[in-house]
Structures are given as structure tokens and as C-alpha cells.
Amino acid sequence: MEKMSRVTTALGSSAISGRTMFCHLDAPANAISVCRDATQVVVAGRNIFKIYALEEEQFVEKLNLRVGRKPSLNFSCADVMWHQMEENLLATAATNGAVVTWNLGKPSRNKQDQLFTEHKRTVNKVCFHPTEVYMLLSGSQDGFMKCFDLRKKESVSTFSGQSESVRDVQFSMKDYFTFAASFENGNVQLWDIRRPDRYERMFTAHTGPVFCCDWHPDDRGWLATGGRDKMVKVWDMTTTRAKEIYCVQTIASVARVKWRPEKKFHLATCSMMVDHNIYVWDVRRPFIPFATFEEHKDVTTGIVWRHQHDPHFLLSGSKDSTLYQHMFKDATRPVDKANPEGLCFGLFGDLAFAAKESLISSDANRKPYPGGDRRYPIFFFKKPDPTEQFAHVSSALSVFETDLDSNRMDWFVKTAQLYLLCGKPFAELCDHNAKVARELKRPQVSTTWTMLRIMFSDPANPTTPGLNHSLSKLGTLPLMNSFNMKEISSGMGTESRLERSKGESRQDNIHLEPGNSHISINNEENEETEGSEGQAEYMFGDAELDDDDLYSMEHDNQTEEQEYTLPQEAFQLRHEIMDNPSAPEHLQQDKADSPHVSGNEAEVTCLTPIESFSLISISQPLFSPHLPASFFCPIVREMLSYYAEQGDVQMAVSVLIVLGERIRKEIDDLTQEHWYMSYIDLLQRFELWNVSNEVIKLSTCSAITCLNQTSTTLHINCSNCKRPMNNKGWICDRCHQCASVCAVCHHVVKGLFVWCQGCNHGGHLEHIMNWLKSSAHCPAGCGHLCEYT
Which ranges are annotated Basic and acidic residues under compositional bias (predicted)? Predict the structure, then answer.
């Protein structure tokens, strides 16, 4: 306490002053450290080791510690530390594994004092004890920490973390014997320097390497850590287990963290890569920095507060070969540019809207009192320093909820599970998906699938019956501009009218010739079925025409002429049939006596025996109705964009996969990738892992197909010898037995394999599921009570 008071008194008698300034260095800096009285700073790097004086207006170089014609690797520094009690004592961590101390009080040019070469790899960190002059701690890439007594020629104790490399070591400011060490495997260990055999406490602080740690200068139990996971975490070490009390999410890996003097909740950080700025955070507001220093043009490698009791000056070194002194009043305040309005949709359609209270409150005209509540006298309130406070911006949040029943996502889950995206012909896929959408009461989606089948199906193939009765029967007819029928009755009997018997299959072929078209009928049986009183039915080509589809025929002495005109779109053109068998002789004989129809209509052929006959005329097609699939691609592209804009990426992605090459080239790769990623994200939110994996496999985007091939490592042990399997087959290369054998059917499992984590027995997914429906014991007979969840 006596030494601490002396420092405070010195600071009070000659307050630190200065401005934001910088100087150019000879080489990039790796680390910086400041002396106790805050008048000098040392800069160390691979090719620089200098001391600068901090004057009112500029940095002044005082001493270059790299001396000699050929400086050794001992001058190549990864870290540097200036003793806070002995002003002439420095320590550096060398890249060759050496720990070097420097005595600035030496009269010679070479200030090197002691050299410790016990570490086998690069030393990442050195740290002096805050109150013991001769105690120095180091942490190395070799995984060891060593404590040196500077009065001796070697280390007095070695600490092994039983882990990977040590990235940082820091003595506690309050506990004399305690120091913290951070490791590349994400762990932080607390050690007692009196017990080098085992750490006192260890906990996992980050997912990935922990690059830095720093004890709070005032609060005894607070330890801040930063790592590659872009997190800064504050831990309370006073409890039996380390408790995370604050967490700050940054935008890049955290390389350095330093608590701000005299400010309990403020700390400064810099990044290891990508981000060049220095941030000061208030850990109570972890989502936006309290202040930002943006002067450096390259990665910041070292930060230190100029004095341990002055929060207004920050020193920093960078790879851009500059040394900066930052005045806190010159820092950028990101909160001043923050938008107090926000809008967000919830998963089930709820809408949250945040805006300034002054915009939406009823008493917007009332100005708040800056001093606080006026129910109390104004002198009760201490006016805060505005430079040390976050800008007071408060937003009112309004949440607009929707009816859960009307916005349930059950249809999404059922659609994802029931849709077929491959494995069947295109028409069947469309029909199946249309049926699924129709059953889920989504008529627009169902109609879209039906239209896609009509657009892209091959017209030469018959369509699936039953889905659309009229279209399926008219789909393969030749195109006709008009279809007129006349039926003449002359009092003859109806016993010999043309009829198709039930259960018989008759094939009639229509042959159109230019200029004079005839209808020729070829009956497979070459005879008429007599004795039927029903109406006549005809077979045109491959498609059957029912009476209610095209026209109705009445045989009760109808003399009135009726004309039927069909829309052209209802017919698809059939290729011309050249090999047409000749008609029966009695029809050819009647051909000469057939009446002719006036105008451009063609000759008609008698369809029935002489007692009763019908007249049918067919005119020529005006144009070819065959439309290539590419004709519909712009329409389909617009349709997919519409569904995606409406939020139904499920439909957009499903159509993309089913249509495949028909439409893929019409949509740019970035748009497809965005749709795929959105759909996969939704599937994974609903835990539809199998559907998600199927979509990834069927995707044609290279960025999507690799999603299930990265960051997936599965270590397999043989179920017989319990040793790791190195080969990729099903046979263990050690015991030469099949490793994945189903406990139910005793065959090798080559697909989905499920196993019990209690007894390690398993097998085919379906077999195990069926077994556990009737029995709770393991099918392998080991007696374990297995449970399928």
C-alpha cells in the first residue's frame, strides 16, 4: 500500500497530459509495454527493440536495444514486459525459446542482463510479479510455464499444463501466489506458485484457443479472457466453480484484452486478424462498443493503458509500423450512430417493432429532466460525466402477435416429409406433389404442380389417368378448328347402332390427308356389336372420348342440327399416322354414296351401317401446337421468384430439384444458392435432418453439395476388438471381422446404423425400431435395457 500511495501521489502532483499522436517505427511491432511513471514506452518485434519517451507533442526515441553487427535471435521478440517496481528492468520473450532480461542501468551499450534458454519452442508471454522484484513467469509454445528467480541462473519451478501451447500467463493483482494461464485447447488454468505439480483449477473458457487473459485491477475475482471464437468473457473466480458473468461478442479473434483503469466495467480489446480497430467495451452493454479507435491501417498487436490509474490515455502498436497514443476524448462513439428503430418477424409470424419512446409515447411533447426525477431536489443528483456515459437512447418495443392457428407451420413439416423430389418419372413426381399440396389445403401450390406437369411432360406419352379426367382424355387428340356433327335418322331401328361392348378394347385411327381428309375406322374385330340399346362410344387415336367430354348423342329421331365448337387448347397435335389399315369393305362401298358438306369442310365417312349413320367433319389445323419446354421457362422463373419473395422457399427449391436441367440455367447460381440455404436453414430449425440432407445431395450448386462433406468427422471403433477402424470398409483390419453387423438380422449394415450408447449393440434402423416395440432388452442378448428415443 505504501508503494501504491507513492504512485498515486506522483500522478496527482504531475498529471499526465498529451494529445492523440503517433510515430513511425522501423519495423512492425509485436508488443509494447510502459514504465511505471508513464513517461517511456518500449516497443518490441522481430526487427525492432526500442524505447521512446512520451513527451507533450510527440514520441522521442531514447534508446535502441538492438546492438551489435549481427543481432542474434535473442533480439527477436514475441513479447515484452517493463517491471512496474524496478524502472530499469525489462524482460522479453524471444522467438527462439529464450527468456531475456535487460538492465537499463548498465553503462555499456549492450543492456542484456540474463539469458534463460530452458524452453524448447517460442516463448509467447512473460510476466513480472506485481510485488516481487525478482520473480518472472514465462509461457511457451512447448506447453510449459517456468518461474524464474532473477538472482539465480535457472528456473526455480516448472509448471506443465498437460496441454497444448501456453498463449498467456498473468499474475493475479490481489492474490500473491496465484497466476492464470490460457491454452490453445480453450482451457484456462489457475496455479499456485508454491505447487508446481498440479493446477488448482481448470475450466473450458472458449471453443478454440484462448489467446489472452487479464485480471481485474480492482475486483479480486474477475478474470477476462479472449479467444479465437470472437468472444470476450468475464469470469468470477471467487466461487467454487468459475462463473461466466459477462460475455462480449466481437467481430474477429481477440488477441489482447486490457481492463481500463478506474472504470470497473470497461475493457479494451484488439483483434488478431481482419479487424484493425481497438474497441473499448462496457461489459454491461456487450452488443455495441463504448468507444472505438480507428487510426491503425493494419492489425493491432499490442495495447496498454499509459498509467494504471489514468483511464484517458491508451498506447498501441501495430503491424503497420506505427506507435499511437490515443486520447479517449477523441475516440469514435458507435452508439451515436446506432439506429434506435428496429423491425423483426418471429418464427410464427409475430412482429416486433422498436422505436424511440418520444415517437410513440402519448406524452411525446414532455421533455425529460436531465437531472433525474423532479420529485426530489436537484442537488440530490450527481451530474455524470457525459464522455464516460453511453448516450441515453431508449426504445419502446411493441409486439404484434398473430393467431397461432392461422400461422402454424405444420404444413411446412408435412410437405417436407411427403414431397417426392426424385426417383420417379417427372409426371408422377408432379402428380404426387400436387396431391400432397391439395390434401394440405394449398390449392395454388397444387395447381402449380399440375401446370408444371402439363408444360414439361412429353406430349407423346399418355398422361396419368384419374388426376384430370377431361385433360387426360383430350390430351392426345389432333388439333381441330371446328368439330361439327350431324346425325340423320330416317326411321330405321336402333338395333344395329354402332356401340362398343363393355370390357372390349377397340383402336380407331384418324388419318388426315391434305385437302380432303377422311376418317377411316378400323375395328380389331371387323364386326359391329349388335343388340345394344345404349349410346355410341368412339375411340379417337389413343384417347377415349366420353359423351360428357365432347358432345352428347341422342337417337330419338333428332332432326335439329347442333354445332359444337371446342377450344383449340384442349387438343394436342398428334403426329401423322401413315400406316393406316384399310377400312372394311362395306364402309368403302358406302363411301361413294356419302353426302358432302358445303364450304371448306372435308368429305365425311359413314361411321355406322346403312340403317343409321353420323356425319363428322374435321378441318385442317392452322398452326403447330408443339411448344418447346424453353417456351415456358420465363414463366416458371417468374413463378419461382414469386414464391421465394412470398417466403415459400420450399416450393422454389422443390421445383428447382424436380425440373433439374429444364430450368436450372434460367436462374443465376447466387439466387439458387440463397434459396437452398434458406430452405436448408428452415429444415434444420424444424429438425428435419434427413430431408435437409436429401436436399443437399440433390442440389446442383457446388456451394450446397459440399455442406454435408465438411467439418464432419466420425471415428469408428470395431465392435469386436474395440480398436479404431482405419480403413473405410466394413471389415476391421485388426480382427478381420465385420464391425457393423445388425443384432437382429445379423447382416452387415451398409446404410443407416443405430446403436445403443449403453451396450454399443445396434443394427438397421428399422430392425431396431421394430424390435424395441415388443421388447425392451437388447436384441444381441447382452441383457441391457435399451431405449430408442
Answer: 496-511
pLDDT digits (tens, 9 = 90+) for 472-526: 333 443 433 333 333 333 334 434 333 433 344 334 443 434 444 343 434 444 3
Low-confidence ranges of the chain (pLDDT < 70): 1-15, 69, 360-393, 404-407, 458-626, 710-715, 719, 726-730
pLDDT at 784: 86
Cell numbers 522484484 label which residue? 133
Q: Across 393-510, where does the E strand assignment appear?
A: 395-400, 483-488
Exposed (0-12), middle (13-18) or buried (19+): which is 310, by Cβ within 10 Å?
middle
Which DSSP symbol is given to 699? -
DSSP 8-state assignment for residue 726 = -
Sign, CA dihedral 316-320-322-326, equals negative
Reduced to 3 states, what is the DSSP secondary structure of residue 425?
coil
Where helices occur in 315-382 by DSSP H, the ranges are 357-360
**Predicted TM-score (pTM) above 0.70:** no
Of 210, 205, 206, 177, whose CA–CA distance to 191 is shortest? 177
Alpha helix segments (H runs only) across 98-184? none
| Cα–Cα distance, 594 to 615 (Å, whole number) | 9
Cα–Cα distances (Å) from 384 to 221, 291, 380, 388, 447, in that order, read 28, 17, 12, 8, 66
Rounded to whole angstroms, the Cα distance separating 618 from 483 reads: 6
For residue 577, the model assigns a pLDDT of 54
Q: Are 78 and 93 in contact (CB under 8 A)?
A: yes
Q: Give, in degrees to the nearest 5, the angle at Cα 483 between 481 and 488.
A: 155
For residue 545, report the phi and psi dihedrals to the nearest 5 degrees.
-105, 115
Residue carrying C-alpha cell 439506429: 339
For residue 126 the three cell numbers come to 512473460
The DSSP letter of residue 48 is -
Structural domain boundaries in the chain: 342-363+373-400, 409-457+629-712, 713-788
Pick from 562, 550, 546: nearest CA to 488:
562
The whole-number pLDDT of residue 573 equals 54
pLDDT of residue 169: 95
Answer yes or no: CATH 1.20.1090 is held by domain 713-788: no
The torsion region of residue 233 among left (phi > 0), alpha (psi -120 to 50) and beta comes to beta
Backbone angles phi, psi at 472, to 5 degrees: -70, -25
As a whole number of angstroms, the distance between CA 167 and CA 124 comes to 6
Q: What pLDDT is stored for residue 731 in this prediction?
A: 76
Whole-number pLDDT of residue 566: 52
Contact (CB, 8 A) for 114 and 133: no
Print burial letters for 490-515: b (CB count within 10 Å at least 16), e (below 16). eeeeeebbbbbeeeeebebbbbbeee
pLDDT at residue number 607: 41
Cβ–Cβ < 8 Å for 673, 658:
no
Residue type, 163: S
